[in-house]
Amino acid sequence: MQLTRSVLLDNLGGGLTIAGPDTTFVVTDNVMAYNGRARAPSSLLGGVAILSNTSGSRFERNTVVYNESGGVYRSGLSCSGPLVAASGNLIFHNGEPDGNGGLKLDVSTQVGPPGGCALGNSLALPTDANNLGFRSPVLPPLDFHLTSQTPALVRDAGGACTGIDLDGQARPAGAACDLGADEYVP
Q: What pLDDT digit, counting tens, does each position of 18-70 carry?
């Protein structure tokens, strides 16, 4: 399965679930926002649940923001696949108040390795973190592009990469790639 340069927005049942023992996937440069939502408290999923653990699978350079769930899976990213590469992601302001930004690396009771994705340089920030300088994250029309106000912990923080971002702009535009789906171009 491949999902690239897409926006998954405002899905009451949740954003994306990847499951299956032999499912190899590449999910890159996407925005997953406002999925699950408090108005659908029966939704078990907010943003993304990765239940597959297939070598060669990648969940990279995605922006996972403002998602909420009603229970089983984290509202941002839940991942139980240690063979899954998950670097360069920006996970921000999802529904959990525990300071972990909506990130859970294992769907069991143990949080973190060895059960979860190989996060690399992904960044997960809690709901009370400062605004990351998105163009318009709350008021319509929603826009999760980075701006000159985006802090250094996001801009040029994604390490080495090549390719294109959500808009088809070349990566990197600065000294290194930006975290998430958008590459800031002044």
A: 988 788 999 999 999 998 866 556 667 788 988 888 889 999 999 999 888 76
Cα angle 58, 4, 125; round to 5? 65
Which of helix, strand or coil describes residue 43?
coil
Considering the entire predicted model, what is its pTM? 0.89
Chain Cα centroid distance, residue 145: 14
**Angstrom distance (rounded) from CA 165 to CA 149:** 19
User: What is residue 85's DSSP assignment?
Assistant: B
Q: Which two tokens stand for residue 75?
A: 């509202």
Question: Could you tell me which residues come within 8 angstroms of residue 50 by beta carbon, excluding any fewer than 6 positions away?
Answer: 18, 59, 77, 78, 79, 80, 81, 84, 86, 117
- The DSSP-derived string for 103-146 is EES-SSS--STTSS-B-TT-EEE-TTSPP---SBSSSSSPB---
How far is residue 111's CA from residue 167's CA, in Å, rounded to a whole number? Answer: 34
Contact (CB, 8 A) for 16 and 25: no
